[in-house]
Amino acid sequence: MKPHPRTGRIVRLSETARPRVHFHLDGSPCEALAGDTVLTAVLSSSHHLRQSEFGPEGRAGFCLMGACQDCWIWQADGGRLRACSTPVMEGMQLLTEAPAGWPS
Amino acid sequence: MSSGAEKVVIVGAGPAGIRAAEMLVSAGIKPVVIDEGMKAGGQIYRRPPDGFTRSPQQLYGTEADKAVALHGRFDQMVAKGQVDYHPQSSVLACANRSLHALTPSGRREFGYDRLILATGATDRLAPVPGWQSPGVYSLGATQIALKAQGVALGRKIVLAGSGPLLTLVATQLLKAGAEIEAILDTSSLRTQMTGLPGMLARPGLVLRGMMMRAKLGRLYHAGVKILGIDADECGPVSIRWQDARGTLRKSDCDMVGIGWHLRAETQLAGLAGCQFDYDTGWAQWLPRTDRMGRAAERLYLAGDGLRILGADGAEVAGRLAAHACLSDMGLAAPDSSADLRRLRRYERFARGMARAFPWPAEMVRRTPDETVVCRCEGITAGQLRESVDYGGAEANRVKSLARVGMGRCQGRYCQLAGAELIAAKAGISVCDAGRLREQAPVRPAPIGAWVRDA
Ligand SMILES: Cc1cc2nc3c(=O)[nH]c(=O)nc-3n(C[C@H](O)[C@H](O)[C@H](O)COP(=O)(O)OP(=O)(O)OC[C@H]3O[C@@H](n4cnc5c(N)ncnc54)[C@H](O)[C@@H]3O)c2cc1C
Ligand code: FES
Questions:
Q1: Cβ contact, residue pair B146, A13, below 8 Å
Q2: Which class in CATH covers the domain with range B3-122+263-352?
Q3: d(CA B86, CA B105)
Q4: B362-433 CATH choice from 1.10.10.1100, 3.40.50.1100, 3.30.1480.10, 3.40.980.10
Q5: Using alpha carbons only, what angle is made at residue B371 by residues B233 and B436, rounded to the nearest 5 degrees?
Q6: Among B44, B222, B312, B433, whose Cα sits 20 to 30 Å from the Cα of B424?
Q7: CA gap B417, B411 in Å, rounded
Q8: Distance A60 CA to ligand 1 centre (A)
Q9: Can you list the positions of beta strands (E) in B299-443?
Q10: Tens digits of per-residue pLDDT, B327-386?
């Protein structure tokens, strides 16, 4: 898998005057806006949320309404979040792959 | 127990749930309202988080007044303590007159005497080669990203499928400044015309739809066959399709939104004891109720989770369900004959829509063997067909053998296509391929939440 391209897949079309929020994705510092979901925040600097457990492709969510569960993402402490319905918070540590030593 | 002390629980705070709550409140009842959203409103009237500044006009267009009225009414009932509202709470299971929910403060049970389910709908999906790649989303998701977050999910977008959302989402994206490469409708103009007589039950909506369509101009193509999405590890790079004249075409893109109208969200209704009938017009299993929405003793359904009549129909259905609930409790309720008339008109319109923008049965039946049908676990059409050979032509058997319908979306996005493939393989009708039985939890419960509160 290539390292994260610098830009993600998300294009911000409006509502860009919100305060900034800082988080880490795979250890690298990233920026988002207050009110972003974790999905919006992560996909602003990446093209996927994690690797699929069942195929070669990455996963980036599908329904954005809590129905498909395609959007979960790892946290550094081993917890997982449903990215489409969790607001991003200052200081979040998010991972696109399972934390080291964690059975994925 | 006196009827005044009966506990009524409503699941869902979209237009149906809100209007149901309103009618109960005006009869002096304080319902419990459980909803997954951060704010009440449901799908069409979804509200962005605090700190967003677009006006209702920008968010909801022609429907802004309705949105403002619904939000205002609900917020007012909450402020006055007339409803016991639980936002950001998912109902996961229903058994023995009790709902099991996951709330922000953990697991919680809600007992009820009467239950009104207003759980709405999800996109109705059909498998397209390559749809498992990251950057392929449902049409609804494409709209939610725009409405609730102010973002587009790609720089160069193709929208494909059929149904009212196709034209609507395209219009909304263009207005917001997104770049759309193509809008591909699998329904031909001729098929769309066959729905027109029914749709004319609501001429204003037809006119609005035609005006939107006209503005899409040459981006819009009807009668298209979708052949596949090509992707690299970042997501889609192009979509291959055949136009109405049979010419092979390719559109470059980095995001694809797909969907074929809507599918009623009926998992909780099934767990609560509702019966289902296969509806050929809607090409899906729908709950069996009377005209008011009575599904079983003490169980009422309303909104898109019962019949996909759209937002106005959901408001009417919400009132009717509450009406049924009140009269079953022996309480007076206002006359509902005008609402029943409205419901009939909305139904004629909705049936026309279903006819104009049909489920792509033929396309699904021809799904290539190597195409993924279950996005959750990467199970292909070939694997599903094979399981029919050795396991038999029944949806629940195929689920246990090939795991189609067993993944984390719990069959929401594969079961209609799965049934179509089973039926085609066995030469039976889709209805005879059976319906997947619901299983709790209807949303995967994070194990931590259950253990913490156990
Ligand atoms: C993604 C999407 C976009 C749509 N966009 C439009 C549009 O732009 N214009 C239009 O006319 N129609 C649109 N529709 C159709 C429109 O949503 C409906 O006609 C209308 O909103 C139906 O109202 P409802 O009250 O039945 O359901 P909804 O408005 O869908 O509300 C249902 C509510 O129930 C909640 N819920 C569901 N399951 C659970 C559970 N297990 N636990 C707790 N809460 C639960 C949901 O979170 C939601 O808030 C859309 C539908 C979808 C799925
Ligand atoms: S994208 Fe479907 S649940 Fe989050």
A1: yes
A2: alpha beta
A3: 11
A4: 1.10.10.1100
A5: 115
A6: B222
A7: 10
A8: 22
A9: 299-301, 372-374, 379-380
A10: 999 999 999 999 999 999 999 999 999 999 999 999 999 999 999 999 988 899 999 999
